[in-house]
């Protein structure tokens, strides 16, 4: 089985930056894509960006040049670097992994709050 643990959330002022981390453990070889999703209060969970084992990245339109997703395979960790944060980016951010057996796993989520 695979376990995902997020970290790095917190309170940041508008225009600030954060880096979220998602550490994967267990049967890492069964993962073929990892991604970040977010869910704001009263809204549906939405894709932020995902990165495949090949390195291909798929990002939501709102990410534009503000968010950058990456993976360090040596550390079994995925990151998202977020700059130019806006109050609209306030949400719980979830790490996701898709496995070769068709399963989808989620981390517990980390809160990001953008406020002055």
Reconstruct the topology from this structure.
Blueprint: E1 2-7, E2 10-12, E3 18-26, E4 31-39, E5 46-52, E6 57-59, E7 67-72, E8 77-82, E9 91-99, E10 104-106, E11 110-114
Parallel strand pairs: 2-11
Antiparallel strand pairs: 1-3, 3-8, 4-5, 4-9, 5-6, 7-8, 9-10, 9-11
Brief account:
This protein is mainly beta. It has no helices and 11 strands.
What does this entry look like structurally?
The protein is mainly β. The chain has strands at 2-7, 10-12, 18-26, 31-39, 46-52, 57-59, 67-72, 77-82, 91-99, 104-106, 110-114. The strands form two sheets. Strands 2, 4, 5, 6, 9, 10 and 11 form a seven-stranded mixed β-sheet that branches. It is globular and about 40 Å long. It starts with a strand and ends with a strand. The mean pLDDT is 95.
Q: Poorly predicted ranges (pLDDT <50, ≥5 residues)?
A: none
How far apart the termini lie comes to 41 Å
Number of strands: 11
| Secondary-structure class | mainly beta
